[in-house]
Amino acid sequence: MAREKISGVDTAWLRMEHPTNLMMIVGVMMFDGALNLKKVRRIIEARFLAYRRFRQRAVQDSSGAWWEDDTDFDIDSHVHRIALPGKADKAELEALVSDLASTPLDFTKPLWQFHLVDNYAGGGSALILRIHHCYADGIALIQVMLSMTHTDARGSLAMPAADIETTSSGGETEFWEQILKPVTGALENAGQIGKGLLEQGRAIAANPQMATDAMQEASRKGVDFIGEVAKLALMGRDSPTRFKGPLTARKRCAWADPLPLEEVKIVGRALGCSINDVLLAMAAGALRDYLEEHGDPVEGVEIRALVPVNLRPPGQGHSLGNHFGLVFLDLPLGMDHPLERLYEVRRRMRALKGSYQPAIALGLLTAVGHGPRILQEQVVQLLGQNASAVMTNVPGPQHPLYFAGGRIAEQNFWVPQSGGIGMGVSILSYNGRIQFGVITDEGLVPDPNEIVARFAGEFDKLMWLTLMSAWGEDEVAPKSEAKPARASRPKKAKADKAPAVAEVAESAPAAAKVPKRFRNL
């Protein structure tokens, strides 16, 4: 039987599967009306299965991990129909998504399933996708799902079979040559460094001294790998909170009401922050408020989030596989003032720009994927014990889409967590709105709705502060610089001061451009 070697990083994701943390990406689309199962199956067969990879199983033996054609492939094993009971709405769909997120996929078959959900929100439908992370990352899966949709209802029913030849972005060495390039200098050297690290991956697993030699060579060529690796190796644990602890095998999923993307952009422009800064600060505020509500101390509390960073070379968005690294972001939950917290998040995100953390994290996963399982388990444990959450932001299309004749009203997804991490926060923009999804271990956070319900309030605080500054308030945040961080923060980076009203008002929206829900209040 013909088979294909699974890449090192995809092997690592395959082997991360654990009863308390399944390596599934879970997504749901909600539709205005009811979908027809036959039409859904036809689109899946024509477009989704155009990727040969989705007809293949992931198998492991003494020689490694392999993609192997499923000679008994049956689409009925992968496309299921479920009807919600009674007058089902958001709560019932969340319960179903939570059950599916807690249920392992069948490893004797290709690791994906679609679930068409009937009787949702007064006769509408929902479509749930579960797929193992070893097949693709979020950026690739967005492209896969886009290939199954159309910009009008009729077009979404007449989609021909796709002609998709590639299932990956080529060899690992070629990939490293393209993505391991420093943001600041040494552009030509870094590709060769990455290639050398990849070629030495198996040897490094057996001889750690080789890793030191490789890092020293990288430093000689102008790439500060040694400093970055030292930061990761010496990184202490984040604050102990109820977000960390023994995990169960039960997951709970929830999502917030969507926020208008344009309003988030307005706040970001007015305050001199990126959309991502605003969203991460909102998440920090929501988590802080949750801890306070449960009577937990928040002074000085920081939780560390693993934030995926896309390392795909341009033009390879349609290829499957995992091509992202990770950065470690400490969220300042201990900061009370929303703007002080926002500017500290911005400062920390800026400090991470140009960092080699993403490439190093990807390199580690690639190397351990080629090495013995015990080495991978140690690396995953190291990453997991020093963080409390995974947080990811995936941009989606900003126009309405149709699937199998139905208009997609909302979309959400939830990321898997590895090791001992028990919480994931997912942010997805679609059709001019931003959606927050949260997945938690039931033993740590029994009801994640208590977290997602706080996102809108955190945004309203930032919007009000923006409007106050635009209309002449003295200042929208404390004048003092952000409080000194603990040792995990970069020492050389200076904290940003919150801007005075004159600085903010210059770029703040005029009253005529203020979102309608904030006018005349």
UniProtKB/TrEMBL annotation:
Belongs to the long-chain O-acyltransferase family. One of its GO terms (biological process) is triglyceride biosynthetic process. Residues 498-513 have a biased composition (Low complexity). PANTHER family: O-ACYLTRANSFERASE (WSD1-LIKE) FAMILY PROTEIN (PTHR31650), WAX ESTER SYNTHASE_DIACYLGLYCEROL ACYLTRANSFERASE 4-RELATED (PTHR31650:SF1). This is diacylglycerol O-acyltransferase. One of its GO terms (molecular function) is diacylglycerol O-acyltransferase activity. GO terms for cellular component: plasma membrane. Its EC number is 2.3.1.20. Residues 7-278 form the O-acyltransferase WSD1-like N-terminal domain. Pfam families: WS_DGAT_C, WS_DGAT_cat. It comes from Usitatibacter palustris. It catalyses: an acyl-CoA + a 1,2-diacyl-sn-glycerol = a triacyl-sn-glycerol + CoA. InterPro entries: Acyl_transf_WS/DGAT (IPR014292), CAT-like_dom_sf (IPR023213), O-acyltransferase_WSD1-like (IPR045034), O-acyltransferase_WSD1_C (IPR009721), O-acyltransferase_WSD1_N (IPR004255). Pathway: Lipid metabolism; Glycerolipid metabolism; triacylglycerol biosynthesis. It is an enzyme of class 2 (transferase). Transmembrane segments: none annotated. Keywords: Acyltransferase, Glycerol metabolism, Lipid biosynthesis, Lipid metabolism, Transferase. Residues 321-462 form the O-acyltransferase WSD1 C-terminal domain. Residues 475-521 are annotated as: Disordered.
